[in-house]
Design brief:
By secondary structure, the chain is α+β, with helices and mostly antiparallel strands. It is built from 8 helices and 5 strands. It has one domain: Glutaredoxin (3-Layer(aba) Sandwich), CATH 3.40.30. Helix 3 runs antiparallel to helix 4 and helix 3 crosses helix 7.
Length: 210
């Protein structure tokens, strides 16, 4: 019955979201055991994604739009999926390598676009290097970053974090180490995240956000 309710819920207009009470095990899952969240009264939102995931691509503009208007006390962290497949792992390490080189923010959306709009799957290291070279990235520096201790460490941390959060598919979003949201339509997913952010904030401070 709960699964049926969740499916029907997707058909509702965005304006109706505020009138419906979000339910545990229907719209989000508790993370057991709870993981560390934001420090003090801050709330951390962690998004798990994979560049070649169509649902992640659909979710991306919704996340970016909310990011521009989110409360000041919310921190958003992107974590690439580390499923045990060569192209997934390569994409994850590429995310961290580009971050190490200081060009991730500029290229994050371009990688999504190339895969989903230009039909360039970037599924191999050679394909990714060719694409990055076209974007002005020094391929030798990229290779060094891919092999660096920093990137290996971050990739391992991403794998461990996904395990601790119970991530089985993407996009999935953890809210303050307490709640996991996934498997929902993009607009609905954002509304659930916003609800859980407020819930987490209240649990920390005892007050709702202004």
């Amino acid at each position: 019955m709960k699964k049926l309710f969740a499916l029907l819920f997707l058909l509702l207009p965005l304006s109706a979201f505020a009138a419906i009470e979000f339910e545990e095990d229907v719209h989000y899952m508790p993370i057991i055991p709870e993981q560390p969240g934001g420090e003090g009264d801050r709330v951390e939102v962690v998004e798990f994604f994979w560049y070649a995931c169509g649902h992640c691509y659909a979710f991306e503009p919704h996340l970016q739009a909310w990011k521009e208007n989110k409360p000041d006390y919310v921190d958003i962290t992107l974590v690439p999926a580390m499923f045990n497949r060569p192209n997934v792992i390569m994409h994850a390490k590429t995310f961290y390598a580009l971050k190490l080189l200081g060009v991730e923010e500029d290229l994050h959306g371009k990688i999504f676009h190339a895969i989903h709009e230009e039909n360039n799957r970037l599924a191999t290291q050679d394909a990714m290097e060719a694409f990055l070279a076209e974007q002005g990235v020094d391929v030798e520096e990229y290779r060094k970053a891919m092999d660096s201790f920093a990137v290996q460490t971050q990739a391992r941390r991403a794998e461990v974090l996904a395990e601790r959060f119970g991530v089985r598919g993407v996009p999935a979003t953890g809210v303050d180490g307490k709640y996991l949201v996934g498997g929902l339509e993009s607009s609905l997913m954002i509304e659930v995240i916003k609800h859980l952010v407020e819930k987490s904030r209240t649990e920390k401070t005892g007050d709702t956000a202004e």
